[in-house]
Amino acid sequence: MSLLNIVAIESSLRRVQEEFESINQRLSGQRDLMDDTVIENLLAGYGYVDILVEWGIDVFAMGNHKYLLELNNIVLCGPDRELRSQYAKHIAATQNRFYEKLGGGIEDLVEWYAGHSRWTVWRLAAGLYVRMLSKPELFIEGNHRTGVLLASYLLLRAGKPPFVLSVENAAAYFDPSSLIQNISKNGLIGLFRLPVISKRFARFLEDQADFSYLCATNPQKITRSLCLEEIPNAPL
Questions:
Q1: Is the pLDDT of residue 168 over 90?
Q2: What is the pTM of this model?
Q3: Which fold is adopted by the domain 6-230?
Q4: Helices 65-77 and 143-157 sit at what angle, rounded to 10 degrees?
């Protein structure tokens, strides 16, 4: 049974796409346009999050980190196996960074998660998002989109709605995200500033909770069979 209302999620993302030029003008730093590929890959990512939660997959457990890596592959390269061959070098480089990067790879993220697992889900989702984006970032590219999916995964596991970009929340999401990206998680500035940003972002996530993005049954959603057949590393 699907948990996410992919139709409602797509509707919100399409509205952002339509109004992105005006949204961009209000941002402190300009963002790349949201084209159809970005949205389609994000929707595939939400579908994958749905599967992970439905199947009870803990992406932080030993042996399951590949599922978090796959979320990044999906938002950047899409779920199609044939198209993946075009991005083979990038996928290999991302995997190497993910597992080997000192102070910013998956080991750092898992250790942070273990040390803060008793936080509220809002604080935890925000904290992991901040940890992913701050220097050094977890992935070579796509940290913002993958971070949104990871936060949504945590929220969904706790019975909360996912975070979805909307016309109303876009500016409040993009500006602090750009700020986080320029702060080192291992420096003195990060030691003092990132916890403050994380608390604010947790309140932001909670304020954006919209249960219309949850739906017990919806025949128009991405189906489990589609995700399992087309997305590498899908839980079996």
A1: yes
A2: 0.90
A3: Fic-like fold (1.10.3290)
A4: 130
